[in-house]
Amino acid sequence: MQRTLGAVLIVLGLIGLAWGGFSYTTKEKVVDLGPIEATREKTHSVPLPPIAGAAALIGGIALVVVSKPK
């Protein structure tokens, strides 16, 4: 179980360090006048601090190294 969790943390840490964050798009209603409707797309970005990716990577390596092989 610890080895699996460690491997997942390693992968997430590497992705976090390489990618640096993610963004998503939402639609907002700007004008709604009866049958006429205007919307706009707004992009939101969520930065992922490099320290979080490094912490996940180090934690995953520690779990893999410390866990006992079966």
TrEMBL record:
Superkingdom of origin organism: Bacteria
TM regions (residue ranges): 47-66
Key words of the record: Membrane, Transmembrane, Transmembrane helix
Entry protein name: DUF3185 domain-containing protein
